[in-house]
Design goal:
Largest sheet: 8 strands, antiparallel, barrel
Structural class: alpha+beta
Number of domains: 1
CATH topology: mRNA Triphosphatase Cet1, Chain A
Number of strands: 10
CATH class: Alpha Beta
């Protein structure tokens, strides 16, 4: 189980601003090895309680909240990341567990029993939570990400665009693209993540002319696009 706590800030930028920032970041950070010419695809299946507790917590701005998701980067992936992302007091905590494709497919059917059989305490706690509060798969969220990394302070700067969705959780591993656009390609989210502090050279590359830090949830945007 991986457990990471860090600062996470989000901003909306335009395509020109993104390309200019990429050029500056290239001088002070390293391109993520997973990047292709246009970055890489992120596909996540989100789970929520029978009463959509996590959606409403975000929608009304509850300070302490969480999201549970299953994440892959290709329909051919043999493993997936089962993640719980929590926010409290301005900090983001992400705990993740690698599970097999077979286990992932069980989760598509809301079969979480295998989590209780693992020796990992996080997996067992997640089983208890998801069964007690009747968590079910809700929707698939997909987008294109281009990322920069720095070895110190776990620094990551990412650009996310082409947000799209699929309302059928069973399409999680479907190689056929059934995604429906949710946002225009010009709708780009910049995310800046780090432990401790951000180097001044990276701050300069990002620039100080960004709009105010936003509270944006791709999951909530997709649910709203679905008409909730």
């Amino acid at each position: 189980m991986l457990d990471v706590t860090r600062v996470e800030k989000k901003f909306q930028i335009d395509p020109v601003g993104m390309e200019n920032m990429k050029e500056r970041l290239t001088r002070v950070m390293t391109s993520d090895p997973h990047n292709g010419p246009d970055g890489y695809i992120v596909r996540s299946l989100y789970f929520d309680s029978i009463y959509n507790k996590d959606y409403f917590a975000k929608a009304i701005g509850v300070d302490v909240r969480k999201k549970i998701r299953l994440r892959i980067y290709s329909s051919q992936d043999k493993n997936a990341k089962l993640e719980v992302k929590e926010k409290a007091d301005g900090m983001q905590r992400k705990r993740s567990l690698s599970i097999t494709r077979e286990e992932s497919e069980k989760m598509l059917r809301a079969d979480y029993g295998f989590l209780a059989q693992k020796e990992d305490a996080f997996a067992q706690a997640l089983y208890y939570l998801m069964t007690k509060e009747v968590y079910r798969p809700k929707c698939i969220v997909e987008y294109d990400r281009y990322a920069f990394i720095h070895p110190d302070n776990n620094i990551r700067v990412t650009f996310d665009q082409n947000l799209r969705m699929d309302a059928d959780p069973n399409d999680m591993f479907n190689p056929v693209n059934k995604m429906i656009p949710v946002a225009e390609s010009s709708d780009i989210t910049l995310e800046v993540k780090y432990d401790g502090f951000l180097y001044s050279s990276i701050k300069s590359a990002i620039g100080d002319n960004l709009s105010i830090n936003i509270s944006s949830s791709k999951y909530c945007r997709v649910r709203e696009h679905m008409g909730f």
